[in-house]
Amino acid sequence: MTETTMRRFGQGPLSRASALIYTLLVVELLVLATTVPGLAGLVLLDHDAANVPLAAACALPVGPALSAALYAVHHRRLDLADLHPATAFWRGYRMNVRGVAKLWIPLLALLTVVGSTLANFGAAGVPGWWAILLVLIALAAALWGANALVITSLFTFRARDVARLAAYFLFSSPRVALADACLLVVAAGVTLVGSEAALALLASVFAAALLLNSRSLIAEVTEKFTVQGDTVQGDSPERPRDAS
Predict the structure, then answer these.
(1) Hey, is 231 helix, strand or coil?
(2) Cβ neighbour number for residue 158 with a 10 Å cutoff
(3) What string of pLDDT tens digits covers the 244 residues of the chain?
(4) Kind and range of the H or E element at 69?
C-alpha cells in the first residue's frame, strides 16, 4: 500500500487547503461580528477632516478583533477532521483584549492627531516639509502597531515590553517592515477603490498575510525572548501562548 493511500483522511494537500479556506472564512465572520458597530460607523461617516476622531473611535474594536484573528490563524489546524477556528478565535480574543487595548488606544490617538493635523494642514501655518514628516511618523506608527499586534497576539509579554520589542524589530527586521508597508499600501488601495467595508471583508486574509510577513519576527521572539529559546533576554522571561 502506497504512502498516499495510507494517509489518513484530512491530511492531504487538498484537505489542508480546504482547512485553511474554512479557517479564514470562519475567522472573517467572527471579525465582522466583533467589529460590526464600529464598521457601520466608519461606512456611514463622511470623509471629512472633522470626522477623524470619530473614525478613530469606530476603529477601537478592530484591534482586539485583529489580534484574535492572528491568534486563530496562527494556531489553525492542518487536519480537515480537526478544525476549531471559532474556539481559537474566542480564546485569543479573551486572552488578548486587555493587552491589545493598552497599545491600540495610544496608537489610534497618535494617528488621530497626525490625521487631523494633515487634514487641516493649510490652516496650521507650518512649513510644507512638516507634512512629509507627519506622513513618515504615521507610517512608522502603523508599522510599529503591526509588530505589536503580532507579538501581543502570540506571546505573553507586558505592554511596555511589547512596545519595546515592536520598536526593536522595526530596525532589526527591515524586510518585515517593508513587507508590512506593502500590505498597508494594498489595504489603503482597497479602501480607496472600495470602502472600509471592502477592507473588512478581507480582514482574515490580511491577518494571514501579516503572519506570513512576520515569520522571521515570530521565530526570533521565540528563540531569543522566551524560555523556549536558547537565550532568555530581559528581566521577565515569557512564554509563547499555547493553543490548547
Answers:
(1) coil
(2) 13
(3) 444 444 555 566 777 788 889 999 999 999 999 999 888 888 888 777 778 889 899 999 999 999 999 999 999 876 666 688 999 999 999 999 999 999 999 999 999 999 888 877 766 666 777 888 989 999 999 999 999 999 999 999 999 999 999 999 999 999 999 999 999 999 999 988 888 888 999 999 999 999 999 999 999 999 988 875 433 333 343 446 654 4
(4) helix 62-74
Backbone φ and ψ of 240, nearest 5° = -65, 150
Contact 92, 154 (CB under 8 A): no
Computed on alpha carbons and rounded to an integer, the radius of gyration of the chain in Å comes to 19
**Model pTM above 0.90:** no
Rounded to an integer, what distance in angstroms lies between the CA atom of residue 213 and that of residue 133? Answer: 26
Q: Where are the alpha helices (DSSP H) in 78-128?
A: 85-119, 121-124
The amino acid present at 219, given as its one-letter code, is A
63 closest CA partner among 95, 35, 30 = 35
Residues contacting 128, CB < 8 A, separation 6+: none
